[in-house]
Design brief:
alpha/beta, Rossmann fold, 9 strands, about 25% strand, globular, binds hypoxanthine
């Protein structure tokens, strides 16, 4: 089945379950999932029940789409995202984003946990993503392009909405939350970087590095949606003495910074 037909089938299944049109899609990073508690839930649909959705590689971790209201807006949030390192194809990683577009979503808000590559950063910093570098991550648009989904050669001069970045900075200032702005470097993982790789990424102009987001953002831009994305800096891999990183440390740092990120996302949603 052509991708567009799969997407239409998936969207029509979801619309039978839930008839409000979400205008905002939310994707949450590792350790940042309790954001969904802010949503006044109308309907939850398990990924395993949704036709054409990627099948989870981890048993009991299938995830769900949550539909509801937040900050006076109809939203859909992914509780659980798909990563390339789990064995999903780039197109599978991008599939839920494309479904969001079919459902009527106009703006996607994305969060992630990321390693600090800018030596001024400290653990717990929030970084608004102003641009990205895809470093060895495969492009989700590889293969035949279906014109109905977007152009063959999408412009990527401004993947992250400058208007939303400006709004988020003003919100952070009002809330007295310090935010950084920087370039997110997307890698495949699942290994964290070697010392030499962190240095390479710094030399290339990256401020942070992580294993998600880039493929989702490309799919969102391809389909004409606006994107805002923010990283929580969970470790400072660029500092040699801090280069031993564990997943537990990443999750804990994300969890600690989550309330700051949540309050910025909520205020931003109100202003959309
Ligand atoms: N590298 C890649 N991904 C990450 C890191 C990191 O240092 N921290 C959190 N996600």
């Amino acid at each position: 089945m052509a991708l567009i037909d799969q997407l239409k089938e998936t969207a029509s299944y979801i619309q039978q379950q839930c008839n409000t049109v979400p205008l905002i899609g939310i994707v949450l990073g590792s350790g940042l999932g309790s954001f969904v508690n802010e949503i006044k839930v109308e309907k939850e649909i398990s990924y395993s029940d949704i036709p054409n959705f990627p099948v989870s590689t981890v048993e009991g971790h299938s995830g769900k789409l949550i539909f509801g209201e937040l900050g006076g807006k109809n939203v859909v949030a992914m509780a659980g995202r798909f990563h390339f390192y789990e064995g999903y194809t780039p197109a599978q990683v991008a599939f839920p984003i494309r479904v969001m577009k079919q459902l009527g979503v106009e703006t996607v808000l994305i969060s992630n946990a990321a390693g600090g590559v800018n030596s001024k950063f400290v653990v717990g910093d929030l970084m608004i993503i102003k641009d990205h570098i895809s470093l060895f991550t495969l492009n989700p648009l590889l293969g035949k392009n279906e014109e109905e989904l977007g152009p063959r050669f999408p412009d990527m001069s401004e993947p992250y909405s400058v208007e939303l970045i400006t709004k988020a900075k003003a919100i952070a200032e009002k809330l007295e939350i310090t935010v950084r702005t920087g370039v997110y470097t997307g890698v495949t993982g699942p290994t964290f970087e070697t010392r030499s790789e962190y240095k390479l990424i710094q030399t290339l102009g990256g401020d942070a590095v992580g294993m998600s987001t880039v493929q989702e953002v490309i799919a969102a831009v391809h389909s004409g949606m606006k994107v805002f994305a923010m990283s929580v800096i969970t470790d400072i891999g660029i500092r040699e003495e801090d280069n031993v990183i564990t997943h537990e440390e990443v999750l804990q740092a994300a969890k600690d910074a989550e309330p700051k990120l949540t309050s910025i996302f909520i205020e931003l949603i109100k202003e959309l």
